[in-house]
Amino acid sequence: MQCVNVELKERRYPIYIGEHLLTDSSVYPLKSGDKVMIVTNETIAPLYLETVANTLKRIGCQVDHVLLKDGEKYKTLDSLNQIFTALLQQNHGRDTTLIALGGGVIGDVAGYAAASYQRGIKFIQIPTTLLSQVDSSVGGKTAVNHELGKNMIGAFYQPITVIIDTTTLNTLPKREVNAGLAEVIKYGAILDYPFFEWLERHIDNLVALNQQDLQYCIARCCQIKADVVAHDETEKGERALLNLGHTFGHAIETHLGYGNWLHGEAVAAGSMMAAALSEKLGDLTHTDVARLEKLFARANLPTFSPDGMQPEDYLPHMMRDKKVLAGKLRLVLLKTLGQAYVTTDSDPTLVLEAIRACTQAD
Ligand SMILES: NC(=O)c1ccc[n+]([C@@H]2O[C@H](COP(=O)([O-])OP(=O)(O)OC[C@H]3O[C@@H](n4cnc5c(N)ncnc54)[C@H](O)[C@@H]3O)[C@@H](O)[C@H]2O)c1
Ligand SMILES: O=C(O)C(=O)C[C@@H](O)[C@H](O)[C@H](O)COP(=O)(O)O
Ligand SMILES: [Zn+2]
């Protein structure tokens, strides 16, 4: 088992990474008599709910659960309210610990429920998708979507522990594994060129779920994110780098309707738009853009704008992005592979040209 710490002083917490951790009672920060509410969904429950509940019962916890509907389109206030109803019906108070068992959707909704139920209760993340293991379970961004924009209602709220059991990936559909690889590639592109090169050598093993490479990759991504979050928990500065491709990607997700393109797929295409703009600005070389595109393609990810979305469709969505300041877009761009920066003065004509460069002719 590996352990990465998120250094947030008195809110410091560990991320445990290893095989078969769902049944390892030593990684759960709970004791006999504690009350827990597990939030999961109808797909994950038959696979892992009993295993987790049994481990908690062995510790001596009182265990309840609530099942949400599966999918990005259920990352809503309504799902949040279902969690509150379950907590209230089963008389849970401020001493309850909420456990998110699932992917990023479950983690984001359950995290926001924990942040707001009775003004805040303890929260544990047990991520079961690659995307949630490398990204969403770490760092405390919690949210639900609004029909006009992704993650528009939420809070920064840190878990007390993250438990990553990498064997859960064995049941994950291939398309979801690939979507997780988009955020993995993002880390290399924004902050870690040696990791980007490592990915160029190992991406096929990751697609094939090679456990040894997965463990290394997940730990590396968690370490990169933990370092960024420790320096800038609430995105006043460098944390925005983790948003590479997301201003474009969130526009895709919202425009197509939540769940039609997976978050990771939208991030891959969005990152190519950011790369195209970086090339137009004279920073990224054509060779580097091609390397990024090839890596996404090897992970079976889209590198072009979706059919049925026009370049002009992007800007209204992009202007609602949470990074917009004083009515100005803030975009994450690449100086080189492994070095990202945030810009406030992107020329809208060039932005549109970059989107066009990633739009396939009919
Ligand atoms: N908070 C953050 O920092 C952050 C970071 C990145 C992404 N996100 C958010 O995360 C969400 C995407 O997360 P995701 O990619 O995990 O999608 P997801 O939560 O929708 O999970 C993907 C699918 O896999 C299923 N599943 C989960 N674990 C499984 C397993 N082990 N075996 C079989 N099926 C399993 C789920 O039920 C779902 O159908 C988006 O809403 C995105 O905005 C948040
Ligand atoms: O943790 C962060 O910070 C990120 O930006 C990680 C992203 O991968 C993630 O999708 C995040 O939810 C996007 O944040 P948002 O603030 O643009 O909603
Ligand atoms: Zn993301």
UniProtKB/TrEMBL annotation:
The enzyme's E.C. designation: 4.2.3.4
Keyword field: Amino-acid biosynthesis, Aromatic amino acid biosynthesis, Cobalt, Cytoplasm, Lyase, Metal-binding, NAD, Nucleotide-binding, Zinc
Location in the cell: Cytoplasm
Residue sites binding NAD(+) per the record: 70-75, 104-108, 128-129, 141, 150, 168-171
Gene assigned in the entry: aroB
Keyword Flavoprotein among UniProt keywords: no
NCBIfam families given in the database record: aroB
Group of enzyme by EC: lyase
Details of cofactor binding: Binds 1 divalent metal cation per subunit. Can use either Co(2+) or Zn(2+).
Reported function: Catalyzes the conversion of 3-deoxy-D-arabino-heptulosonate 7-phosphate (DAHP) to dehydroquinate (DHQ).
Family: Belongs to the sugar phosphate cyclases superfamily. Dehydroquinate synthase family.
CDD domains: DHQS
Cofactor: NAD(+); Co(2+); Zn(2+)
Name of the protein: 3-dehydroquinate synthase
Entry binding sites for Zn(2+): E183, H246, H263
Species, as recorded: Exercitatus varius
Domain 3-dehydroquinate synthase C-terminal as annotated: residue spans: 180-324
Keyword Transit peptide applies: no
Transmembrane parts of this sequence: none
GO molecular function (one): 3-dehydroquinate synthase activity
Residue ranges of domain 3-dehydroquinate synthase N-terminal in the record: 66-178
